[in-house]
Specification:
This protein has about 230 residues and is an alpha/beta fold. It contains 8 helices and 8 strands. The strands form 3 sheets. The chain has a 4-stranded parallel β-sheet with strand order 3-8-7-4. A two-stranded antiparallel ribbon has the order 1-2. Strands 5-6 form a two-stranded antiparallel ribbon. β1 and β2 form a beta hairpin. α7 runs parallel beside α8. The chain is globular.
């Protein structure tokens, strides 16, 4: 099924290059986006904290939020601000079920991942949804983004190496402490992660609580170094 899907998408792109996935305009230098939508991506172009990925004047370790950063998560990167085009792309996927937007999102994530060292043997693992939420939505947005990113990076993806065993946190929880409590013990990792470097992929980094809970679950199973990348940062 995956081979057939890739063949069909490649054939469509070859015969008729895709229009902008947001507005339907002609794509520009950035694939799948027109010039106007690409200009509003608001990608990070300056320095970042080398651990949590927060924007800084220059690349440097240990920003103000790092003392509370999950210990098992070595580093994280986000492509840009959760606003403008990145926000529109994420919402079009999560709430509009427009799977075409996974193409720009996945390639944006891949480009951001390349800013970190990628160890030999790294496996891409998407942040999972609980089965009830996945059944309601019809797909997991992190898996769809990770599928494109993994292909661009030339890495294997294993969506079943991590699962969510407790239901989603309420979206109204915004504080870091509240989100940490909500995701504590919410994930379980497969024993196959033992010794493997992991690249976690999600759509948005808010407080780091979900990525931290995933990293702890992977660490308990003996995973190697764990890094994370998201399309945007709230």
């Amino acid at each position: 099924m995956e081979i057939l899907r890739s063949f069909v998408l490649g054939l469509v792109d070859a015969v008729a290059p895709p229009l902008c996935v947001l507005c339907g305009g002609l794509p520009d230098a950035f694939p799948w986006l027109c010039e106007s939508c690409a200009r509003d991506l608001r990608l990070y172009t300056g320095g970042v904290c080398l651990r949590c990925g927060a924007p800084r004047a220059i690349d440097a370790p240990l920003c103000g939020g790092c003392p509370d950063w999950p210990k098992r998560l070595s580093a994280a990167r986000s492509a840009g601000v959760h606003a403008g085009t990145l926000r529109h792309l994420t919402h079009a996927l999560k709430y509009g079920r427009q799977l075409a937007v996974t193409q720009p999102l996945g390639h944006i994530v891949a480009a951001s991942a390349r800013q970190m060292p990628i160890a030999a043997g790294t496996v891409v693992v998407p942040v999972p949804l609980h089965r009830s939420r996945r059944r309601q939505r019809g797909f997991n947005q992190a898996t769809e983004i990770a599928r494109v990113a993994a292909r661009a990076l030339g890495l294997p993806m294993r969506p079943r190496w991590l699962r969510r065993v407790r239901d989603e946190m309420p979206s109204v929880i915004r504080s870091a402490a509240g989100r940490q409590r909500a995701v504590r013990g919410a994930f379980r990792a497969h024993e196959a992660v033992r010794g493997r470097p992991i690249l976690l992929v999600d759509d948005v980094l808010t407080t780091g609580a979900t990525l931290g809970a995933c990293a702890r679950a992977l660490g308990r199973r003996g995973a190697g170094e764990i890094r994370a990348v998201t399309a945007s940062r709230a």
